[in-house]
Design a protein that fits this description.
The structure is a single chain. The chain has 154 residues and is an alpha+beta fold. It folds into 2 domains: 49 residues, no CATH class; 96 residues, ACT domain (Alpha-Beta Plaits). It is 40% helix and 22% strand. The strands form 2 sheets. The protein has a 4-stranded antiparallel β-sheet with strand order 4-5-3-6, covered by helices on one side. A hairpin with a 5-residue loop joins β1 and β2. α4 packs antiparallel against α5. The longest helix has 16 residues.
């Protein structure tokens, strides 16, 4: 997807005018305009708002599979991210969960971890790894969710 902006000056929601020349590339002007609009709608500008929650039902799984099959083609490579407690032991458990579904080891260089600023949580990013189907992706997430220390996954 490519966005073209041909205007030379832009007006933010607050009424202030600014130009692409003052703020760099036209993309910067578009981002600033979107940020201003987002702020008026109660969102934090230049961020991605993620809604986490709800319950997982068979219907939700079926909907996810149908959508995934429309937008992704398999086989493909992708990453898996889990956030939880337990430090290195949690990281190891998430790697084992992915390996158990994929039936092959994840190379050490494809596992990255980051401790939260408060030190309570660890984020583990596994990938990119090759997956063969939507069902395999779902099986990886289900294997990760079996660990009670996992709080969120992406």
């Amino acid at each position: 997807c490519k966005i073209s902006v041909s205007c030379k000056s832009y007006r933010s929601g607050a009424g202030e005018a600014y130009s692409a020349a003052e703020h760099g590339a036209p993309q910067e002007a578009v981002l600033k305009a979107i940020s201003e609009l987002s702020r008026t709608e109660g969102r934090v500008g230049q961020t991605t708002n993620v809604v986490i929650g709800g319950t997982v039902t068979d219907d939700a799984n079926d909907e996810w599979l149908a959508l995934d099959q429309k937008v992704n083609s398999y086989p493909t490579v992708r990453g898996f991210t889990a956030i939880g407690t337990g430090g290195d032991d949690f990281v190891h458990a998430m790697v084992v969960a992915v390996e158990s579904v994929l039936q092959r080891p994840v190379p050490e260089g494809q596992v990255k971890q980051k401790i939260s600023s408060g030190g309570r949580y660890v984020s583990v990013n596994i990938g990119p790894v090759r997956v063969s189907s939507s069902e395999q992706v779902q099986a990886v997430y289900n294997a990760m969710r079996r660990d009670d220390r996992m709080k969120y996954f992406l």
